[in-house]
Each structure stands twice: as C-alpha cells, then as structure tokens.
Model the fold of this input.
Amino acid sequence: MKQRRLPVELPEGYVEFYKKLESWQNEQEISLKKQYTFEEYDILSLLAASNKSLLRIKDLQIKAEDYRNIFQKLCKLVAELRPETADTMQKIAENIDEIDFAELNRKIIRDDEAYFTSLADTMDVSAELLLFTADHSLRPFLRLYAAPYQKALLADEFQSWDFPTICPVCGAKPHVSRLRSPDGRRFMFCDRCFSEWEARYLACVHCGNNEPGTVKYINIENDEAYQIYTCEKCKGYLKTYDERQSGRNTDLFITNIETIYLDMLAQEKGYSTHDMD
Ligand SMILES: [Zn+2]
Ligand SMILES: [Zn+2]
Done:
C-alpha cells in the first residue's frame, strides 16, 4: 500500500494506537458473540414510526458484569499502550466501584456529558479519559448488536431515515462517509457501532442544501480518494473516502483517524461539522 504523506504531524503512535484498539475490540466482540443473542427488531418500521435511533427506543440488554469486565481490560490496555495515561487508568480501576455498570451503557448511548463530568469529579479523574474508556469498552457490544441490521440499512429501498448525521442504530454522530464503488452512492459510517446508512450524494448532510455550485469538494494533491465535502450555505463539511478512486473498500474507523489532517484543513478554511448537528 502506498504510504500517504501527512501534511501535519499526528502525535507519535496515534494511528497505531487506534489500530490496536480496533483489533482488541474485534477480539472482544468475537468472544461476546458466543454468549449473546440479542433480540432482533424490524428496524425499518421502528425507525419510520419513531424517527429515533433504535437504541433510543429499545435498551441494550447486556450484563453489567460483562461490561465491567471489558472496561477493566481496556483500562489495562490503554495504560500499556499509552503510558502517559497509566496513572489515571490505575485510579479509574481503583475507583471502579463508583461506576454503576447497569446504568452506564444508557449514559453513553444518550450522550450524557453531565453524568460523566460529575462521575469523573467523584472519582477524581479526567472526564475525557473516563468517557473514552466507557465508550470504547461498550463498542464491542454495540457492534455485535448492530451487525444484523446492516443488510436492511443498506437495502436500496431503505428511505425511512432522514437524519444523515445520526446513526440509526446507536444514535452516535458519524465522522466520515464513503462513496461506494462503482455507483458513487454515499454511505455514512458510525465508528461506534460500525453501522452504515445511505445519505444523498449531492446534498449537504448538515442542512440538506443541494443548490448547484454550493456543495463542493476539496482533496489533497495526490490523494484523490480522501475528500472533504463542504457546504457554502451552512459552512459544514464532511470527510469522505471515495472508493471509486482506489477500487477497494477501506477500514473507515482507521480512515477517520488517519485523516485528522483533513479536519484541520477544513476547520482552517472556516468549515465545521457543527459537532455533526
Ligand atoms: Zn452507531
Ligand atoms: Zn449545509
């Protein structure tokens, strides 16, 4: 694979860290698969009827002790891979009894920042690292839960979700999309549960604007597959991987991490993700 030169320096080991994290999450998912069978719903009719992500309507049924166990393992892994976090990770592990794991998954899914700020305060640790650990140790469960819905969400006739910037399964905000080869249709990608869903290619995902000439794309020289779509109406942007350029699929989880420089470029030019609305 051709080595892409980054116009900016990412922190040392940054991409490597996320690659290891993703493999670790895959392993956890495989082992959970042996223990869990989630109830499956008719997602398309639920989405159409409620206009809400599936996990905002149906709770994620997981055992608190399983979540706690994976959370503990992740604390160790992060401390190993990023030694500068070791002290905080140890403190989180020591104060783990402060965390109610039966409740935690709902707090992640509902994006309850206030809850994490206050919990971090009680535990006297960084809210950012606490949230990171809670979120990333839930992802193996979410990916296992979301996988069976992928087929329905990718079906051509799926038209019942009008919120390109909200994951229809877990409610997270996507950070990247891909243009499918060979037809160029756009799919949004959720890096939390790995769901993909279609968004209209020509319209801005933030405001729906599709006036000719106001939705454009920028790419870096010699890097045709990696693009940023920008909207002049709302000043929003969206990172995009164009599979037609390379003719292959990409790991969008890693693509999102590797293309932090595209976010910087877009933000320098005055565009934002509106925190994905
Ligand atoms: Zn999701
Ligand atoms: Zn827009």
Remarks:
- Residues 204, 206-207, 209, 231, 233-234, 236 surround zinc ion (ligand 2) (CB under 6 Å).
- The chain has two domains: 14-148, 150-276.
- The longest strand covers residues 223-231.
